[in-house]
């Protein structure tokens, strides 16, 4: 659980950073998402990790590796297509959609049912952003994706602390 929390928080910082950049806020504003993620990571460290066998850990590691590689390939293809069709403003919404889709097989394989909601929320944010004018997409996608990842972390930690 802890490695998942760490990864979710690192990407939440990155997404929020995109939102801050899109809003034209100074770099120092990045301290806010770093503080939020830091608080979530510290909270997670106080909650005992659920027991997991070495074989289960290896299986999950393979699963995450495979789907992360698929995600990376899809991101490369999406960026290439968006650039070649003259739609560079569609890159970030496409990334949100791809990242969201990558959560769906993880939800099934790890299994963490919450990741279905995380994935569908990210896909929805990416799709909704495509309806916005190109220059207006970065800030809402960045902040929404970060909020989704932070909410997922809080839910995972809260659920683990009740167990």
Task: Give the key terms.
single chain; 163 residues; 79% helix; 0% strand
Question: How would you describe this structure to a colleague?
Answer:
There is one protein chain. With 163 residues, the chain is mostly helical. 79% of the residues lie in helices and 0% in strands. The chain is built from 6 helices and no strands. The protein has helices spanning 2-22, 31-46, 54-84, 91-109, 114-129, 138-162. Helix 2 (31-46) runs parallel beside helix 6 (138-162) and helix 3 (54-84) packs antiparallel against helix 4 (91-109). It is globular and about 50 Å long. The model has no long low-confidence stretch (mean pLDDT 95).
Percent of residues in helices comes to over 70%
Radius of gyration, in angstroms, nearest whole number: 16 Å
Structural class: mainly alpha
The mean pLDDT is 95
């Amino acid at each position: 659980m802890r490695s998942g929390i760490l990864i979710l928080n690192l990407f939440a910082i990155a997404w929020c950073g995109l939102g801050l950049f899109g809003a034209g806020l100074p770099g120092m504003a990045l301290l806010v998402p770093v503080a939020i993620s830091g608080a979530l990571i510290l909270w997670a460290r106080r909650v005992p990790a659920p027991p997991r066998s070495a074989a289960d850990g290896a299986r999950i590691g393979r699963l995450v590796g495979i789907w992360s590689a698929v995600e990376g390939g899809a991101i490369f293809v999406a960026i290439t297509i968006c650039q070649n069709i003259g739609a560079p403003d569609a890159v970030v919404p496409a990334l949100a959609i791809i990242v969201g889709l990558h959560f769906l097989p993880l939800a099934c394989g790890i299994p963490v049912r919450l990741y279905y909601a995380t994935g569908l929320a990210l896909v929805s944010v990416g799709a909704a952003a495509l309806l916005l004018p190109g220059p207006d997409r970065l800030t809402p996608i960045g902040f929404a994706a970060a909020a989704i990842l932070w909410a997922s972390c809080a839910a995972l930690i809260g659920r683990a602390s009740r167990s």
